[in-house]
Amino acid sequence: MSEPVSSQRDRTPSPNPDVCVVGSGVAGALVAYSLSRHGHEVVILEAGPWFDPSNRLQRMEKALRPDRHFEEVWDMGGPRDQYTSSGDVFYGLNRTRVKGVGGTTLHWLGAAERYHEKDFEMNTRYGLASDWPISYEDLRPYYARAERELGVAGTDDNPFAPPRKQEYPMEAFPPSYSDSLFADACDDLGITMHTIPQARNSEPFDGRSQCLGFSTCIPVCPSGAKYSADVHVRKARAEGARIVDRAPVQRVVLDDRGEHVEAAVYATSDGERHRQTADQFVLACGAVEIPRLLLLSATDRYPDGLANNSGTVGQYFMDHPIVRIRGTLDQPTNQNPIGFYTSGSEQFYDHEEPTPGSLKVVFENVNPVGPGRMLRGGDTGTREDLSDPFTGDAWGDELLEQMRAETPNRQVGMLANAELLPRKENTVTLDHSRTDNFGNPVPDVSWNLGSHVRETMSYAREKQRDIMDKLGATITAESDLANPRQASHKLGTTRMGTDPSESVVGPTLRTHDLRNLYIASGSVFVTGGATHPTLTIAALALKAADHVNERL
């Protein structure tokens, strides 16, 4: 079980451990566990608290209450989590992250696909973006290790997936009844459906139960059947690692020569500042907080921040825009809520021409209408902010009739992730006009869409409408392509490369500028593809741990 915050009183530094890991999401947890197993002394500094697993039922209740915001489920918001969004499209940062032991995997969906070979070769194949300095083949053994560590349920039924050798650790979840309705329509259109690999137990695995079907996967899995990174934090602790929670790192300090990291300075709730020294440092706190920390650590010698001789820290931020469509049928579709997607199609992922880009299509298992819709005027595309009460246009008797027509549930829906290319103007920077509870400038996220992703989104909408038409569905809602929501896949900002003038880390995940600083995060991604990145983040974290181990 994880450790209650109240019982962990000692937040003073450890005396010069081998490794200091900043962040305890999936990357930090796997790095800490891997290095602890090799006998190294590891300290994790985590900005948020331990969350007691026994309280997850109460957190599920929070999620179900219509008067609670999504962010409240995992205690996000307030002065600690201030941010700004300056891009053309609003970026709701606090909705897409969790600060605490386990990180954002505490509220992720659980899809665990591999990136395709083309994602690593965008420039070579299409003349777009840049190639990664590593290939799919370089990462393939780490993908297999990541699938075992997280516990992925799947089967080899996807003809479009990249090549693999090992079987999945668990059997795949079967397609839902709603999936079977889509399958007939897709067959007629020549579209191939397949199951989606899940980091979710289809049977008891690794001391955790099989999925019990609470159907609240986002934002909380009460049973623990869905993987979250606190699993590996506990394993790391069992191997001797030390976890210091509620210890947000304020800056990174260099030695007098400016060649390597000497300490991570962190704060505690009692107002104290501590310096955690170590031989090696790994930043694993995500694609927003990592560049923010490097920029906050600027000195007279490095006025643009640390590890930033290239000037690219904070640049090329990526996330997948979501293209969504919903409709109703004249028959029941899914009376038993599932909460996650069981089938999808990657038929439109690999492509011959540069545009449109890759699409990852999933078929929703739409849960019955919840009470929150009554407070949103029937709106199904809520952003869960102060605009919600003003977005809907169906109230009173009109809304009541809509909800009656959909009970039993007759809804169907699809989502698509569209490939967003890295763009220099998509950034995470410091907003000096606002500060957090420690007086630090808050992160500003600038998220803008270009012509490539807009064309890809339009292509996704076209395919979705074809399927809905063949299904005989009446379309009831479509997402706004001009103002899409994000998939919570924060990538880029400390990109990987071989040229120190154009990238922050090399193929080993060590920074070009500092010889004992590594980065394990989605922030090192060179391109974003169109599929869920968590398994790739996990694979890269295992790779980074191997390289750190070689240095120790």
- In helices, the fraction of residues equals 10-25%
Count of distinct strands: 17
Q: From the helix content, strand content and strand pairing, which structural class follows?
A: alpha/beta
Radius of gyration: 23 Å
CATH architecture term of the domain at 17-79 and 99-152 and 224-319 and 490-551: 3-Layer(bba) Sandwich
How far apart lie the N and C ends? 30 Å
CATH-assigned fold name of the domain at 17-79 and 99-152 and 224-319 and 490-551: FAD/NAD(P)-binding domain
Could you report the average pLDDT, rounded to the nearest whole number? 91
| Poorly predicted ranges | 1-7, 382-388
Note the main sheet.
Answer: 6 strands, antiparallel
Strand content: 15-25%
Number of alpha- plus pi-helical segments: 10
Q: Order of SSEs, N→C?
A: EHEHEHHHEHEEEEEHEEEHEEEHEEH
For this structure, what is the CATH class of the domain at 17-79 and 99-152 and 224-319 and 490-551? Alpha Beta
Large-scale geometry: globular
GO molecular function: flavin adenine dinucleotide binding; oxidoreductase activity, acting on CH-OH group of donors
Domain Glucose-methanol-choline oxidoreductase C-terminal: 422-541
Pfam families: DAO, GMC_oxred_C, GMC_oxred_N
Family: Belongs to the GMC oxidoreductase family.
Word description of this protein:
With 552 residues, this protein is α/β, with parallel strands linked by helices. It has a domain at 17-79 and 99-152 and 224-319 and 490-551: FAD/NAD(P)-binding domain (3-Layer(bba) Sandwich), CATH 3.50.50.60. Helix content is 22%, strand content 15%. Strand 6 and strand 7 (261-267) form a beta hairpin. Helix 1 (26-37) packs parallel to helix 6. It starts with 18 loop residues before the first strand and ends with a helix.
